[in-house]
Amino acid sequence: NAGVMQNPRHLVRRRGQEARLRCSPMKGHSHVYWYRQLPEEGLKFMVYLQKENIIDESGMPKERFSAEFPKEGPSILRIQQVVRGDSAAYFCASSGDLVDTQYFGPGTRLTVL
Amino acid sequence: AQTVTQSQPEMSVQEAETVTLSCTYDTSESNYYLFWYKQPPSRQMILVIRQEAYKQQNATENRFSVNFQKAAKSFSLKISDSQLGDTAMYFCAFLNRRPSGAGSYQLTFGKGTKLSVIP
Predict the structure, then answer these.
(1) What are B39-71's pLDDT values in tens digits?
(2) How many contacts (CB atoms, under 8 Å) link A and B?
């Protein structure tokens, strides 16, 4: 199955710890997007990356959050010093070079205790 | 900035019947796509159907079809012959095709409609 892969599916962290979320795009896709879904809400855009480049991070909180998509390996969304308000589902999506349709992974559910 | 509005928080439909979910959007862009995504209890986001703004013909995928009214900025989803597996949250989404810079290629989602299919 060459779908979008995300791991871990569930992540529990205590306040102040770091959370690392991984995303492997669909085979042949080089565009990756991260979204956050708070309970009972739709998804909100965070960041758009291509290999080794951040294209648009207009939805990313200015502090504690960072994202990368290295030449080799998965895209990483990193949240430092997590707080309870970071508890949410984080979805990764990917698209091909036409960037006309985004396909989503299963999401990572982050719980901050 | 784009906005997407889904005015029906919850809906229900009898199995085998037809249901229509509403979506309106606001944009000043001319080149864009519209989507319906489904999120079942598993929480996976599944693409249901896609519409290109420059195409007048309404998109259809099996039991799913859309009514795209560009001038009215309306994009409704019709589900025919509803099945129990259609029970899910349905999100309408807008994709701006601006080629670069902030706002490029990001999906803007509505708040969703929770659809329940009743046996």
Answers:
(1) 998 888 999 999 999 888 999 999 999 999 999
(2) 68
